[in-house]
Amino acid sequence: MVLAQLGGSISRALQQMSNATVIDEKVLNECLNEITRALLQSDVQFKLVRDMQTNIKKIKGKTSVVMFVGLQGSGKTTTCTKYAYYHQKKGWKPALVCADTFRAGAFDQLKQNATKAKIPFYGSYMESDPVKIAVEGVETFKKENCDLIIVDTSGRHKQEAALFEEMRQVSEATKPDLVIFVMDSSIGQAAFDQAQAFKQSVSVGAVIVTKMDGHAKGGGALSAVAATKSPVIFIGTGEHMDEFEVFDVKPFVSRLLGMGDWSGFMDKIHEVVPMDQQPELLQKLSEGNFTLRIMYEQFQNILKMGPISQVFSMLPGFSAELMPKGREKESQAKIKRYMTMMDSMTNEGNSNPKLMNESRMMRIAIGSGRHIREVMEMLEEYKRLAKIWSKMKGLKIPKKGEMSALSRNMNA
Ligand code: GDP
């Protein structure tokens, strides 16, 4: 599918969504299905990769070679180790080969990561021919009965013709079963030309999008998918080895549309909100009725819940602004401050934010021992969240497990 068609089907889907008077589950799902079709436009290719992921292990004695390519700095080397570590946990016997002789320090980086994960690695400080290293590495690990040999190559830019030729030679010599194109989620529309250049030199069969923990929504992935006619299989969500997830199209698209991870959130609600509070909360939300009381109760639940950043990252609107990653302690303190102010608001006998004026805000500030500026900030936060949650009005609340089953079906 060419980019114009892909763009066309996505705008059509969004158009349908914006024409709808109420964004209910049906409208949302139709939109997501449409975009999913566009994203996974090459069903055959997708099945091939999925089968490779799941079935190859069953073919006894068969080793698969996976080659990683991408621009320098895209997160390729980090992703190689994440990919190896992911499969190691699933019972594979992976190994890493550093065929990046271009960037000084590339071998050290891979070696360090591999050692941490206890994954065998191969590379050389002396040898400057990446083809030779790649071939030797693959041979070595085949003899050691590794069943997944991952070859990291130098990062390159589409104008670097010599490096592209070198990458083609590495591919020809190692005959990878799969070539993975790694892209940074912030690359944007340039992704199309870059991905296409890689596809023209080696047969890219899958895409991994990195740095999804940052601000970028990863829209460039759509272009990379279109250019390589390959599906996204994993996303990177942090610098650490285990910050790596199987690509799930639904949360990805929800994020692209700025709607949060709705299905993950629903599952989380079922998991963490006490059973007796669930029906009432969901009912209120489906009425588009996000009150200060609800915000307070959710803060309470969240504070009780443990690794709160996980839950936060799924709540529409809660993630980046209120709860930046890595600053959980500060965010937690902020939530507690908000709650003290809200307590004082209830004591004040007025919890309707619409009736708030300066003297009331002042009384709340004094009552809670905070500055009026902070009361205003808390109310602003409430307004921001209420606006986002008002989009949920009319939503048919799925029962436990329904949403995740749905997203699984979409990926099947
Ligand atoms: P390469 O040049 O493509 O091999 O890129 P590297 O693997 O050296 O990664 C470049 C930088 O991106 C490093 O600082 C990595 O820690 C960082 N990085 C890689 N993947 C992710 C990710 O998913 N999230 C974040 N936040 N950083 C990442």
Explain this structure to me?
It catalyses: GTP + H2O = GDP + phosphate + H(+). InterPro entries: AAA+_ATPase, P-loop_NTPase, Signal_recog_part_SRP54_M_sf, Signal_recog_particl_SRP54_hlx, Signal_recog_particle_SRP54_M, SRP/SRP_N, SRP54, SRP54_euk. One of its GO terms (biological process) is SRP-dependent cotranslational protein targeting to membrane, translocation. This is Signal recognition particle 54 kDa protein. There is one protein chain. The protein has 412 residues and is an alpha/beta fold. It has 2 domains: 191 residues, Rossmann fold (3-Layer(aba) Sandwich); 144 residues, 434 Repressor (Amino-terminal Domain) (Orthogonal Bundle). Helices cover 54% and strands 10% of the residues. It is built from 18 helices and 8 strands. Strands 3-2-4-1-5-6-7-8 form an 8-stranded mixed beta sheet, with helices on both faces. β6, α9 and β7 form a beta-alpha-beta unit. α1 packs antiparallel against α2 and α8 packs parallel to α9. The protein is elongated. The N terminus and C terminus are likely disordered. Bound molecules: guanosine-5'-diphosphate.
